[in-house]
Specification:
mainly alpha, 34 helices, 0% strand
Length: 710
């Protein structure tokens, strides 16, 4: 049983109650985030061993089965019913009735805004009307009816009809006025119910692997359905109260969508936690901006209406996450804390949690969170790092935090703690960059930062030959901008170039950075000659890159912080496929070069096919800008496609090649590897046996069509 879906399919085939229980135990143990296994297990225990055992099962596994993000109305309904049946009915308020009421409140807070929550609200209403303490029945029932009436779903309109009936038969004039104000909102919720239920059902039960994409649709739908704020001074108190109920229902719907999405794919998408925390703080800011939030504001009678909505079973002592719509900085911190716990390998989630604590003036807790992140010893996924190297980001974040709150010596102590890791090369080289930035920017000690960069090159000389050249370019950027030492910056880049055995192996980005320095700092008469010499060297090394002959001139002109924006030069630049990006410093040069490198690797550069055709310089076999040449040299093309591309390259070196032929090759590369089309001899190949004969030529039909056209 590899997946939860496989186990679900096997449950119906259980041959005995013992086997059925074994499957459920396996499900809750290995797939604790699947609510179905918990619900079936609890229902089985309730039917065979009583509600007390079922409630004990769910209560003892509360963090797994009944967590704050478990937006499954059926599971919460079963849990609340087990809690209700496990405790005796009492006419007066007691600890047991308080527990049952709080369990129902937690249930509707976590899953009451889901479209399939009608049965949950109905169970809560029956208990509140018949079994709750007598003194709390009226308030509990009125509160849940008003909250459930504006939630679109299947059958939720029965709660609105009950409100209308009670107002018509036994209510006073204020109750009837509130019912009339709620009527259009309830009608709108009823119209929205079918569409909303369909979207949620598709997200829950679609047989696809894109869980996040499906729940993104649900979140977008709920956020788009959020009622807008209205500022009507002539509105009656009942209309203002109804609108406040509508806003509350909209927020609970959005929170339910985020809860369900987090429950389905929390470990895959930590960004959901961050979005929910931002939304919680946004709701808090909107509440503070309302007139009724200010003492003596316009809506002085809103507290009375809110008292009718409030439940007698308060959840104020619970975690802020069990608010129906989490709001405020404290709720945001709890959400991010759960993100750091759930996505334990995410540095960004832990950093967001620490930043939220720091904003609330709790630096000690933030430092503890970062220390916990460091203790996890997360491995880096840098493709050029050695296997098993630790990620440097947790250490750098901790160092920055200590510098802000405990001074420079505390930050340096954090860096000193990594001495053994650095000497053994068990930590990512970015630890040097991070500490150098702290020394340069926070401590304003340029000399210390420079020594840190040099220390990195001394302890890790292989950094001079990294394919992306990030470390060298960062060091050069620091020397040029922070220290104002362009000569040292160019010397560092030359040192990196010299570290390669062949200049043909030097990354393009180093050539771009070196020539850019010479162009920008042309303070002597020989500066132009130096830049030209670098261009000649890069041409000999076969690193001409995109743009042909224009690229060298473009680098020269754009280094002066201007762009030649006119019709002629723009058309020229477009023909040469040069992006209109002004390279201002080495950092942007590095980022731009990395994008070009990625485009080269994908074989999608526009200079492969120009308006004037593909010439010999474009199809130079030593030019990494040619994706076809890269694949040819790597020997990864199919034999028939290899022969065709070799012929095209041979012709292109002598004369202008046919653009249509090159386009056909590139289109084939984008679709490779594809099976060959069927031949006349064998029209179908639907057997399961391997074919011993050679594969047919995929381009025979194309050649035949060309001959027929001639």
């Amino acid at each position: 049983m590899a997946t939860a879906r496989d186990l679900q399919a096997q449950l119906a085939q259980a041959r005995s109650p013992e086997e059925y229980v074994d499957m459920l135990q396996h499900g809750v143990e290995h797939f604790p985030r699947v609510a179905l296994f918990w619900r079936l297990y609890a229902e089985h225990e309730r039917a065979t061993r009583g509600p007390e055992v079922a409630w004990k099962l769910l209560n003892e596994n509360e963090e797994k089965a009944l967590c704050w993000c478990r937006c499954d109305a059926d599971l919460w309904r079963v849990a609340a019913e087990c809690c209700r049946d496990a405790h005796p009915r009492e006419e007066r308020a007691s600890e047991s009735t308080e527990l049952v009421g709080r369990t129902f409140e937690r249930a509707v807070a976590a899953a009451g805004a889901a479209p399939e929550a009608t049965a949950l609200w109905r169970a809560y209403r029956d208990w509140a009307a018949n079994s709750a303490p007598v003194a709390q029945r009226a308030q509990a029932k009125a509160s849940l009816l008003r909250r459930a009436s504006l939630i679109p779903g299947e059958g939720n309109d029965e709660f609105w009809r009950e409100i209308e009936k009670e107002a018509r038969e036994g209510g006073d004039e204020k109750d009837r006025e509130r019912a009339r104000a709620l009527d259009p909102l309830a009608q709108a919720a009823r119209r929205d119910g079918a569409a909303r239920a369909q979207i949620w059902r598709a997200a829950r039960h679609a047989q696809t692997d894109d869980d996040l994409g499906r729940w993104r649709i649900v979140i977008a739908y709920e956020r788009a359905s959020m009622p807008t704020e209205k500022r009507r001074q002539e509105a009656t108190p009942a209309e203002k109260s109804a609108h406040a109920l509508s806003i509350d229902a909209g927020r609970r719907r959005i929170a339910a969508a985020y809860r369900a999405a987090i429950d389905a794919c929390a470990d895959q998408a930590p960004e959901l936690f961050l979005e929910l925390s931002d939304w919680a703080e946004q709701c808090h800011a909107e509440d503070l901006a309302r007139p009724e939030a200010i003492p003596g504001g316009a809506d002085t009678d809103c507290p009375e209406d809110e008292a009718l909505i409030a439940s007698p079973f308060s959840l104020e002592d619970e975690s802020p996450l069990f608010q129906a719509a989490p709001s405020g900085p404290d709720a945001a911190v709890h959400i991010l804390a759960d993100a750091a716990k759930t996505c334990s390998t995410s540095v960004l989630a832990a950093a967001a949690h620490a930043a939220a604590l720091e904003r609330l003036g709790r630096p000690a807790e933030a430092e503890a969170a970062l220390e916990a992140l460091v203790a996890k010893e997360l491995k880096t996924d840098d493709p050029e790092a050695k296997e098993g190297e630790l990620c440097a980001a947790p250490w750098v974040l901790l160092e920055r935090h200590c510098r802000r709150h405990r001074g420079k010596e505390a930050a340096r102590d954090v860096f000193a703690r990594t001495a053994d890791l650095r000497k053994a090369k068990k930590i990512d080289a970015r630890i040097y960059e991070g500490h150098a930035v702290v020394e340069s920017r926070a401590n304003n000690d340029k000399l210390a930062a420079r020594r840190v960069f040099e220390l990195g090159l001394d302890q890790r000389p292989e950094l001079l030959q990294r394919h992306d050249a990030v470390y060298v370019l960062t060091f050069a950027h620091f020397l040029e901008t922070d220290c104002g030492d362009a000569d040292s910056a160019s010397a560092v880049i030359e040192r990196s170039i010299a570290a390669y055995k062949k200049e043909q192996d030097v990354p393009h980005v180093l050539w771009d950075a070196l020539v850019s320095i010479y162009h920008r700092h042309a303070s002597s008469r020989d500066a132009a000659m130096k830049a030209r010499a670098v261009e000649v060297r890069r041409k000999k090394a076969g690193a001409g890159g995109v743009g042909g002959a224009l690229m060298a001139l473009w680098r020269d002109v754009s280094s002066a912080a201007i762009l030649p924006l006119n019709a002629t030069d723009t058309a020229w630049r477009v023909r040469e496929a040069i992006p209109a990006i002004l390279v201002r410093d080495l950092a942007s040069c590095r980022d731009h070069a990395s994008k070009l490198e990625a485009a080269r690797a994908d074989g999608l550069l526009a200079d492969e096919i120009d308006n004037g055709g593909v010439d010999a310089s474009d199809l130079d076999a030593g030019d990494d800008g040619d994706a076809v040449a890269i694949l040819l040299s790597a020997g990864t093309l199919p034999p028939n496609l290899r022969r065709l591309t070799e012929r095209i390259h041979t012709k292109a070196r002598k004369q202008v090649a046919d653009p249509r032929a090159v386009q056909f090759v590139l289109d084939a590369l984008l679709r490779a590897p594809l099976p060959p089309p069927p031949t006349k001899k064998r029209g179908r190949d639907d057997d399961d046996e391997d074919d011993a004969e050679a594969p047919p030529d995929a381009f025979r039909a194309r050649r035949a069509a060309k001959r027929a056209a001639k």
